[in-house]
């Protein structure tokens, strides 16, 4: 099976005045379709930078990133943006919903960007909200929702356009334990039941233990890549 | 300007600054918090300062316009009077000699600097320049002792006329006459004295100053000073008498001497004894300086009124910015409150920050204001020249008084500090926890009981006070009190109705009242106060914007198909509409800025349009079929021009001549605006000669215009005037009406008679004298016999209305007439051309006011720029998310541009609709539009240009922030903290 994501020799350096910080050092990573991959590591290890670079949100200094066989950094900004709209979904730690849009309007946003007719888009958004348990919150604005509800709207938005891959950056970072558990149940369920590919950044070991594959980072390098199946095999 | 405001303004500003200084010194935390905020957001700081600069500049500019115009008129005192404070004129030579003899001892009076006597006669002059004859029909030929004239006035002071008396065959000219004749020292000129040509060599040309520029009340006097005895000789030969003029100089300089006018005039009257009844005593210096003050004050007030809309926009800009800053800093403010900073100190911190912006804006604002004032005054002077019927006009002399600069700066500072303090108090009332957690404020909270009681009481009081105000059509109160009553009723209404319903209903009622008040009470504009227009415009703009803001979603419903298109464009439009809907306060205050300024700009455009549409009818009303007005010297010998036109060589081109009897009189103000007497150009019309010049208002019982003219013959106490009688500029309203009375006095004999106004002319232009003998002289028309009876020999046939035959060019015929009758000093003016020239000047003045007001539009555009800069900063994370989700950079850019375009367009459209509607209602009912009967045009072209230019400027203001937004890197933006 060809990989959904293939990153080779990815390097990213941040420059602030005279100071240079290398956030990613010649990093290689492959993600197969249907995988749920956790990216873990201590603070400052480069987890979020990795997510940003592999999703094309940020530029890289060296290396190559292919998503669905297309080299992200060989594309123009406009092409990459369009590619993101068609192939990727995002879940952020701070939810990042559009405050002036209702829950349904937020969810239908990716569909609008890919040309789905408004009635179809609205129907799918409502259906998606129902799936994440928010059927009664369709017309609520973000500031009228709790943190957990907001994150579920974000997940609905990330999934509604049926993207090839969903990037989740600390999706439970702003939630209490109970709410975090619910969100993780939702994500793992989607992966398990629908084969949704998800790359999830977290620093929470409890969450890491629930993931089938975990890559660990330190100082911008990938230091381990462990599959739960391997661990179970080891015993 | 406004020296009476200086102390209160400086006092209040001083107290405010002192308080802030105390806060800064005694509360270091507050000071640090405030000053670091200033340094933190430099772009916003620059934009706040720009807004304040414009506000201060507009105020200072308006005051400088007043200073400059007042000073320019005051210069007339230096040019045409110098040391002359009082003028005593006798038509009889023997009386004149007696007057001179009686007044000479006054020279020893400690309150008097000098007494000077001479004779003067109206004359004409001609010269040859570059082989071409040059004529000037408006000349004053003087005969006086030039040695005495040189010594006249304060010892060592400049009387304006120095040097030896001209020798026989020589003449001394002043600059205006030399300029008109294009001649100079050593050149030959011909003077027509009582119609007889006398050749002279120009001995010297003296500057137009003091006695050298003196006349009988004209704004520009073209003087020739003859050798001793020449005028007497010419008068004797013609069997006429020159006017005897004695002038008195009060102790002190040109302006200081005016203070002694009343006591010195009293002494003159005492000294004149029985001659007081046979000579006219004038106080020209006092009149000129009073007119200067009136001109400066009224024009300064007019521009301040126009500028006040921009000032309101400036204050709104400050409020808007501070509300936005507070929103951004909400969690931070919540924290400082949580750790123990009192609310009052928070207000102090905001006020200090605002004061820093306002103080930084002060000096640039004053400097730009001086420039603006100079520009406006320079253009205004050009326009005033076109207004002048006698060709004199006003020479602009730029002046700025320290009082105006201090007043302007203090007023600008006070408005800024007031807006900031009020906003600071408002924004300091937040819930600490909600602020820290950045939660929305609870909008559903019901008003507190105390507020409810106070506001309901005020609502009742305003409603009660509104009843008599509306019944009496009191301008400001009629608009303001019902609106305030409705506003104060809001807390009570909120107890029973939802917020949106209350806001919409109150706004709709205020708007309805604002638009229809002038229909219900048509006399609401009959006030010289300009505040009523400011209140009207502000109420209309604010209420309309509240109404629109509360119902924006419904108004945008027709656009829903466009905003829900599943494209990048559709998303851009959706975002562009969503944010203004969500941020109602900032959108509303930006909308008010645009609406207010657009309303007034469109109102001025529409008034210009109404005037242009009425021009032909106005010309017809003013001329009544006559094409020319001629003025001539009745003392000139030879053929009487009126008779010559009937039977002379030019008669074939003339179909009718109506000679007019002329006298100088003084009248009380029928509108009771001044207790002083008005200089009046008294005109007597022959019985039944004039029937076609149209009236605006007639005495009840006089069925039509000819009936009014006929009534002048039948009723010696009937007079007619035009609507500008006694007006000193600004909106005149209807200060008098047919049936009102006045007292007309012959200044030569003191004979006074009561008169009743039988009709108010639509235009009295045909009756304004064109000989330049008086600067401000209001025509008053009566029957020929009644004028002859009251004024006796002082009333002379010195002008006529002429109707030319079809096909004769009035302009060419006027030139021909002036050439033919130069010896008689004939001045011919085509009446219709004058009407067109005056209309063009009025239109130009409206354009000037529009230009001044456009500064307010700059404030609105700056405001929009500020909102956009802040919006980009606030929405960085949202922009990052949008970009992450697949929104193109150009979509982000477009959404910002469309958002600003949407707000600007909505504001301009709203303002334009209100502007057209308000003008239409005023046109239907206001007396200010009386006589303008060319219909109500909608000026689509200029309104489209205004909307287009505003939209383009607004997009330009948003372009920078929009591009900045498009460049935001999503990876960085999605992780930004709130």
SSE blueprint:
The complex is a heterodimer of chains A (235) and B (978).
Chain A: E1 5-16, E2 19-31, E3 36-40, H1 47-54, E4 62-67, E5 70-71, H2 77-87, E6 88-91, H3 103-113, H4 118-131, H5 147-159, E7 165-169, H6 177-194, E8 197-201, H7 205-210, E9 213-218, E10 221-227, H8 228-234
Parallel strand pairs in A: 3-8, 3-9, 6-7, 7-8
Antiparallel strand pairs in A: 1-2, 1-4, 4-5, 9-10
Chain B: H1 3-26, H2 28-40, H3 42-80, E1 86-90, H4 93-103, E2 112-129, E3 132-144, H5 146-151, E4 170-174, H6 175-181, E5 188-193, E6 196-206, E7 223-225, H7 230-238, E8 243-250, H8 261-272, E9 280-282, H9 284-328, H10 330-338, H11 343-387, H12 402-427, H13 432-436, H14 449-471, H15 475-488, H16 490-494, H17 499-520, H18 531-550, H19 552-555, H20 560-563, H21 568-582, H22 584-623, E10 628-631, H23 641-647, E11 654-667, E12 678-685, E13 695-698, H24 705-714, E14 718-722, E15 741-745, E16 752-761, E17 778-783, H25 784-791, E18 796-804, H26 810-820, E19 827-830, H27 831-874, H28 876-885, H29 889-925, H30 940-966, H31 970-973
Keywords (chain A): ATP-binding, Nucleotide-binding, Transport
Protein name (chain A): ABC transport system ATP-binding protein
GO molecular function, one term (chain A): ATP binding
């Amino acid at each position: 099976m060809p990989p959904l994501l293939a990153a080779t020799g990815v390097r990213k350096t941040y420059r602030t005045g005279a100071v240079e910080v290398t956030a990613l050092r010649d990093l290689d990573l492959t993600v197969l379709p249907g995988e749920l991959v956790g990216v873990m590591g201590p603070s400052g290890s480069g987890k979020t930078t990795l997510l940003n670079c592999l999703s094309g949100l940020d530029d890289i200094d060296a290396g190559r990133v292919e998503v669905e066989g297309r080299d992200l950094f060989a594309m123009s900004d406009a092409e990459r943006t369009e590619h993101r709209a068609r192939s990727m979904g995002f879940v952020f730690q701070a939810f990042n919903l559009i405050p002036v849009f209702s829950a349904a309007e937020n969810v239908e946003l990716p569909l609008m960007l890919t040309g789905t007719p408004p009635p179809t888009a609205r129907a799918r958004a409502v259906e998606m909200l129902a799936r994440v348990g928010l059927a009664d919150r369709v017309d609520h604005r973000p500031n009228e929702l709790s943190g957990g509800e907001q994150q579920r709207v974000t997940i609905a938005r990330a999934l509604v356009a049926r993207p090839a891959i969903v990037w989740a950056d600390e999706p439970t970072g702003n939630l209490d334990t109970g709410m975090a558990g619910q969100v993780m149940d939702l994500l793992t369920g989607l992966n398990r039941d629908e084969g949704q590919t998800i790359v999830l950044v977290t620093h929470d070991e409890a969450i890491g233990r629930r993931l089938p594959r975990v890559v660990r980072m330190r100082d911008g390098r990938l230091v381990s890549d462990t599959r739960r199946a391997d661990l179970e095999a080891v015993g | 300007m406004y020296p009476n405001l200086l102390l209160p303004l400086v006092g209040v500003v001083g107290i405010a600054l002192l308080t802030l200084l105390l806060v800064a010194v005694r509360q270091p935390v507050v000071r640090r918090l405030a000053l670091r905020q200033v340094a933190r957001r430099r772009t916003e700081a620059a934009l706040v300062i720009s807004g304040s600069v414009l506000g201060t500049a507009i105020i200072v500019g308006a005051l400088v316009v007043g200073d400059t115009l007042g000073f320019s008129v005051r210069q007339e005192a230096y040019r045409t009077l110098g040391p002359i404070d009082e003028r005593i004129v006798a038509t009889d030579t023997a009386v004149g000699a007696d007057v001179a003899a009686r007044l000479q001892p006054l020279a020893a009076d400690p309150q008097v600097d000098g007494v000077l006597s001479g004779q003067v006669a109206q004359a004409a002059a001609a010269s040859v320049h570059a082989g071409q004859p040059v004529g000037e029909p408006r000349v004053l030929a003087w005969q006086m002792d030039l040695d005495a004239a040189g010594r006249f006035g304060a010892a060592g002071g400049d009387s304006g006329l120095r040097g030896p008396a001209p020798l026989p065959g020589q003449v001394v000219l002043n600059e205006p006459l030399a300029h008109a004749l294009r001649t100079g020292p050593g050149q030959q000129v011909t003077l027509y004295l009582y119609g007889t040509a006398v050749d002279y060599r120009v001995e010297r040309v003296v500057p137009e100053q003091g006695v050298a520029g003196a006349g009988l009340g004209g704004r520009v006097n073209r003087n020739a000073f003859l050798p001793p005895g020449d005028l007497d000789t010419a008068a004797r030969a013609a069997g006429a008498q020159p006017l005897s003029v004695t002038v008195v100089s009060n102790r002190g300089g040109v302006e200081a001497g005016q203070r002694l006018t009343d006591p010195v005039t009293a002494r003159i009257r005492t000294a004149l004894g029985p001659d007081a009844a046979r000579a006219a005593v004038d106080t020209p210096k006092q009149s000129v300086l009073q007119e200067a003050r009136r001109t400066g004050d009224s024009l300064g007030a007019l521009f301040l009124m126009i500028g006040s809309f921009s000032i309101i926009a400036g204050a709104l800009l400050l409020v808007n910015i501070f509300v936005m800053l507070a929103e951004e800093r909400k969690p931070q403010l919540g924290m400082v409150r949580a750790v123990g900073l009192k609310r009052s100190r928070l207000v102090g911190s905001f006020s200090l920050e605002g004061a820093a912006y306002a103080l930084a804006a002060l000096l640039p604002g004053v400097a730009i204001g001086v420039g603006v004032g100079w520009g406006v005054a320079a253009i205004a002077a050009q326009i005033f020249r076109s207004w002048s019927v006698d060709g004199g006009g006003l020479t602009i002399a730029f002046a700025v008084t320290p009082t105006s600069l201090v007043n302007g700066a203090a007023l600008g500072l006070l408005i800024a500090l007031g807006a900031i303090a009020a906003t600071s108090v408002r924004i300091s009332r937040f819930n600490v926890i909600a602020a820290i957690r950045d939660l929305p404020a609870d909008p559903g909270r019901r008003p507190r009981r105390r507020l409810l009681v106070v506001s309901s009481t005020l609502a009742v009081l305003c409603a009660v006070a509104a009843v008599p105000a509306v019944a009496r059509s009191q301008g400001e109160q009629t608009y303001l009190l019902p609106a305030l009553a409705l506003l104060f009723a809001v807390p009570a209404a909120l107890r029973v109705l939802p917020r949106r319903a209350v806001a919409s209903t109150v706004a709709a009622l205020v708007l309805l009242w604002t638009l229809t008040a002038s229909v219900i009470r048509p006399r609401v504009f009959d006030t010289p106060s300009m505040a009523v227009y400011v209140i009207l415009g502000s109420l209309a703009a604010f209420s309309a914007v509240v109404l629109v803001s509360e119902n924006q979603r419904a108004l945008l419903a027709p656009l829903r198909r466009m905003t829900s298109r599943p494209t990048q464009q559709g998303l851009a439009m959706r975002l562009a509409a969503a944010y203004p809907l969500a941020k109602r306060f900032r959108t509303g205050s930006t909308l008010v800025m645009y609406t207010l300024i657009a309303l007034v700009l469109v109102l001025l455009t529409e008034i210009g349009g109404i005037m242009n549409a009425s021009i032909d009818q106005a010309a017809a009303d003013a001329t009544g079929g006559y094409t020319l007005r001629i003025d001539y010297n009745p003392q000139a010998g030879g053929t009487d021009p009126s008779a010559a036109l009937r039977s002379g060589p030019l008669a074939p081109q003339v179909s009718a001549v109506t000679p007019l009897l002329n006298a100088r009189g003084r009248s009380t103000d029928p509108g009771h605006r001044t207790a002083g007497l008005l200089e009046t150009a008294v005109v007597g019309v022959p019985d039944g000669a004039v029937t076609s010049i149209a009236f605006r208002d007639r005495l009840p019982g006089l069925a039509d215009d000819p009936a009014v003219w006929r009534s002048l013959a039948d009723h010696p106490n009937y007079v007619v005037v035009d609507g500008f009688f006694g007006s000193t500029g600004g909106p005149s309203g209807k200060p008098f009406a047919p049936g009102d009375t006045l007292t007309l006095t012959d200044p030569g004999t003191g004979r006074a008679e009561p008169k009743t106004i039988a009709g108010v002319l639509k235009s009295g232009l045909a009756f304004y004298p064109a000989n330049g003998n008086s600067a401000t002289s209001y025509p008053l028309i009566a029957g020929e016999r009644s004028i002859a009876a009251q004024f006796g020999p002082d009333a002379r046939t010195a002008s006529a209305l002429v109707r030319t035959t079809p096909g004769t060019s009035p302009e060419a015929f006027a030139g021909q007439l002036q050439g033919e009758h130069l010896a008689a000093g004939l001045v011919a003016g085509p009446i219709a051309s004058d009407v067109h020239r005056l209309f063009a000047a009025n239109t130009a003045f409206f354009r000037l006011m529009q230009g001044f007001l456009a500064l307010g539009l700059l404030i609105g555009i700056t405001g929009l720029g500020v909102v956009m800069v802040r919006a980009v900063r606030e929405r960085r994370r949202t922009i990052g998310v949008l970009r992450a989700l697949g929104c193109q950079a150009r979509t982000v850019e477009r959404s910002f541009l469309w958002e600003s375009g949407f707000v600007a367009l909505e504001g301009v459209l709203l303002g334009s609709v209100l502007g057209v509607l308000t003008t239409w209602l005023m046109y239907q009912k206001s007396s200010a539009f009386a006589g303008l009967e060319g219909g109500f045009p909608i000026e689509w072209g200029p309104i489209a240009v205004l909307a287009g230019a505003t939209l383009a400027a607004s997009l330009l203001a948003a372009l920078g922030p929009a591009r900045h937004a498009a460049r935001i890197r999503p990876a960085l933006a999605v992780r930004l903290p709130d």
